[in-house]
Amino acid sequence: MGLFSKDIKTLDDLFIHTLQDIYYAEQQIAKSLPEMIEKATDPQLKQAFQTHLGETQQQIQMVEQVFRLHGHDPKGVTCPAIDGIIDEAQDIAGDVEDKDVLDAALLAAAQAVEHYEITRYGTLSAWAKQLGRDDCATILHQILEQERATDQKLTRIAESKINTKAA
Amino acid sequence: MGLFSKDIKTLDDLFIHTLQDIYYAEQQIAKSLPEMIEKATDPQLKQAFQTHLGETQQQIQMVEQVFRLHGHDPKGVTCPAIDGIIDEAQDIAGDVEDKDVLDAALLAAAQAVEHYEITRYGTLSAWAKQLGRDDCATILHQILEQERATDQKLTRIAESKINTKAA
Fold it and tell me: How far is A85 from chain B (nearest CA, A)?
């Protein structure tokens, strides 16, 4: 989370810090998706990435809403985890020559991103509830469900065609 | 995956590369767990980390078995994703003063690690099957189920006590 841990004294501090972490992460994801959309060959995969870009932009606004509900200005902190995950995705997007193998690699990279989001929104939603912020928890849980649905959609696309085409 | 993408021409190449990625990741996880065990205060959380260290050591051997079944020597490649995830965990493990808040942070960090493993083993298991390596797929699926069970156990510990103690 690129944090100064000494500043984290309460669960509330930890909640805000993790919210800053995912806010930064969502922005990095929004920046990286256009390249993935461009590189993807399969129309259904390309469309899934396109849809996820729209959702990501919407989720950034939802996270901003959580910040404000909780009395904080939206702010990001560098998150080495998402940076690492996206670095891997970009390495892959670089120049695997075979288009079908590249699609399989891009899809796997996108699922790694999804799982990072799933774990963070799961945690944030539980912490918000614990802190008595049911309003924040509701929004965070909505995002969590969107991420889970995207991950499941990607699994379906992988199993129904992408992996077969790549093999 | 710290890879030279140009060397990846087939799904088989991508499978081996991702196996090398998770092999490195498991080793980094095994190295980082002792510090998390030491830092955790709650006995049930400490025990869960201890159990996961044992499982991780066993999983390293299972991944080695997959390499050999598929005719390759076990080898790791630097994985920026797990390095980033562990960096965040170590930042947190650094010096959050309140022991209960630290436990909540450690637990969340461990779940981020689990989700990285879940996404990679899910992908690897599907690719192994696609490549006609049901023997490898079976082992990879066993590891996947262990990771999912660990993640669910951590969620139960979080919801039943850690989050309440931290609030």
Answer: 4
CB B131 within 8 A of CB A167: yes
Are A112 and B120 in contact (CB < 8 Å)?
yes
pLDDT band at residue A95 under the 50/70/90 scheme:
low
Q: What is the pLDDT of residues A31-66, one digit of tens each?
A: 999 999 999 999 999 999 999 999 999 999 999 999
- Residues in chain A with CB shorter than 8 Å from the CB of B24 are none
Which of A64, A79, A91, A73 lies closest to A29, judged by CA?
A: A79
Question: pLDDT per residue over B32-49, tens digit each?
Answer: 999 999 999 999 999 999
| CA atoms in the 13 A half-sphere facing the CB of B153 | 16
Question: Contact A163/B119, CB-based, under 8 Å?
Answer: no
How far apart are alpha carbons B48 and A53 in whole angstroms? 37
Q: Are B4 and B78 in contact (CB under 8 A)?
A: no
Domain boundaries in chain A?
A: 11-166
Distance CA B126, CA A13 (A): 40
Tell me if A163 and B111 make a contact (CB, 8 A cut-off): no
| pTM (predicted TM-score) | 0.93
Establish, for the pair of chains A and B, how many residue pairs have beta carbons separated by less than 8 Å.
164
Element (H, E) at A122: helix A99-130
Residue contact B5–A96, C-beta within 8 A: yes
d(CA B102, CA B92): 7
The H-or-E segment that residue A2 falls in is: none
- Domain A11-166 of CATH type 2.60.120.10: no
Binary contact (A120, B105; C-beta < 8 A): no
Of the partner residues A1, A104, A127, the one whose CB lies closest to the CB of residue B14:
A104
Nearest C-alpha of chain A: how many angstroms from B158? Answer: 9
Q: What is the ipTM of this complex?
A: 0.92
